[in-house]
Write a structure and sequence with these properties.
238 residues, mainly alpha, elongated
Length: 238
């Protein structure tokens, strides 16, 4: 496909402002002054993903565990959170900008929200699905509540939590870039794409799209490697 792309542009079969060579796309982040801005934009976006991911992950784990382990907490919080989850992700942007403005706080809040829901849902489901026989073992051994949680419940819920983390990372990355693109100001891959669109620089648009895809794939791969290293028995049990 890449060879056909090169041939179509070089022969003039595909021409016009949208026709850019793959060679130009590859060289733009290194030789073009505007293209080199993608590296700073990438650093800014990854920093937002890290900040929002940690906040959203901790909130998702805490609230999900609370709803999964306590029936009263689940009845109090779970219906409202499940209802809020039905709202399309990017529909939150107008509300967040109304609350926090168009600055960094809104972008971090949106990334946190993007990461929160997948981890909350996965943690809640994982806690709910703990086998009853594990609860019986805990009671038979007279284990303390904290010991049952750390040694029985949490390990049993880890497969579900792992899926939630993998989904949350991708959701946080897409959410970060989407918020940057929608809000438009500041640095970030989304802002880089918006600027390239406004300049009608299709080579830079292609660079931004490739960066988005590459980072998404890398985050998914890194999460799998991290879980396999920390919990090797998870992979063996799949």
């Amino acid at each position: 496909m890449i060879l056909l792309w090169i041939a179509a542009v070089a022969s003039g079969i595909w021409s016009g402002p949208l026709a850019v060579s793959p060679v130009d796309v590859v060289l733009a982040p290194f030789l073009d002054p505007n293209g080199r801005q993608v590296w700073e934009a990438l650093v800014q976006s990854l920093a937002r993903v890290a900040t929002g991911g940690v906040l959203g992950g901790l909130l998702g784990l805490t609230v999900g565990a609370a709803c999964g382990l306590s029936r009263s907490t689940g009845r109090a919080l779970s219906p409202s959170l499940h209802a809020a989850r039905q709202v399309a992700l990017f529909a939150w942007i107008p509300l967040l900008t109304a609350w926090f403005g168009n600055g960094e706080t809104t972008k971090i809040a949106f990334t946190t929200l993007s990461c929160f829901f997948p981890i909350f849902l996965a943690t809640e489901r994982g806690m709910h699905d703990v086998l009853p026989r594990l609860a019986e073992v805990g009671h038979a051994l007279a284990l303390r509540r904290r010991t049952r949680l750390l040694k029985l419940v949490l390990p049993s819920a880890l497969p579900s939590i792992r899926i939630g983390v993998e989904v949350a990372l991708i959701s946080a990355w897409i959410g970060t870039a989407g918020a940057e693109y929608a809000i438009g100001n500041g640095r970030g891959v989304g802002s880089f794409l918006a600027s390239a669109r406004d300049q009608f620089r299709m080579d830079l648009v292609a660079v931004g799209v490739i960066v988005l895809a590459g980072v998404g794939v890398s985050l998914h791969a890194l999460s799998r490697v991290a879980f396999n290293r920390m919990f090797p028995w998870l992979e063996a049990s799949r």
